[in-house]
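Onboarding guide, step 5: your first structure request.
Type a short instruction followed by the sequence, for example:

Predict the 3D structure of this protein.
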Amino acid sequence: MRGCGGNRGFALIVVIVVMLLVTFLASELLMRVRFESQVAFNRRHQQRARFLAEAGINLAIFRLLDKAVDDTLGDPDKPFLYGREYEAVLPAGKIRYYAVSESGKIGLNSSNLAPLKAYLAWMGLDEDRIAVIADSLLDWRDSDNLHHLNGAEKDYYQGLADPYIPRNGPMQDPGEFLLLRGTEGLEEMFDPGAVFSVHNPSGKINVNSLAPGLADFITEGDREKIKMYREIRGGRGVLNGSLMIQVLGGDRFAALESSLTYFAGNNPYFTLTAYGEPAGGKGEGKEQAVGIRVLVYKGGARGYEYRSWQEIRNPRTKIDDNSAKRD
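The system replies with structure tokens like these:
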């Protein structure tokens, strides 16, 4: 009888162990199924967001080519304002997009460095660091190995932990700015592609095609001035010097006057930026947004040509708004 009791006890222990093992395996399987389901859900939302962003790029192209677009603004027949953010709402989610002439950004290949220096000062950099960046930009673009007073040439960049060679020619992409001596850490403060251009030889900023990322800079972050600027743009469409004095005030206008222009000239390059925000996901749609920035050459057989295509990995809550980074 004792033997039977011992066998029953052993059997009970085996049953308990098996049940615990089965429960553990079932829990692992359930967790894996949930994880894979969430991964699939996130992937679908990312794909939807990307498709929405691509649709926004196409909407911007149609507006750029002056073709009618049926969006939710109710004003597709009104002039397409460069730098203004437009929205279109679909069952799949929301599209936000805008287009700017490259004349509405700060030129990195211009001999006029005043706008760049003013922007860096507004971002909080001191005079010494601005001088290093400005001279390093000149050295980056020239073809010799003689550095300016505060600049850097090949020997400096070759001595870095991760060495590289300066271009010794005009910049080909705004992202090159972050390779210059003195720009360490600035990638956390602003996005060069949102405010800089390599296709603005005049260097002056066209306020009638102002990149949204420069609105805070021009107005020194004054919300009322930004509101007035947008209202005038929406009503009149075109600003001139007199109107900009009203927007900025006399002192700020005087400080920026030599850096501003009101015409794009013959600049055929445009940046199109679009964000897709999927509907039906967890959290805010803007947190799941996918952004795309495209450089377009307006011309050619079909009216436009793509020159670059970049996915913006961490879209900001407000399109290309750098104020949060500065604060």
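Each response can be followed by summary notes, for example: The longest strand covers residues 269-278.
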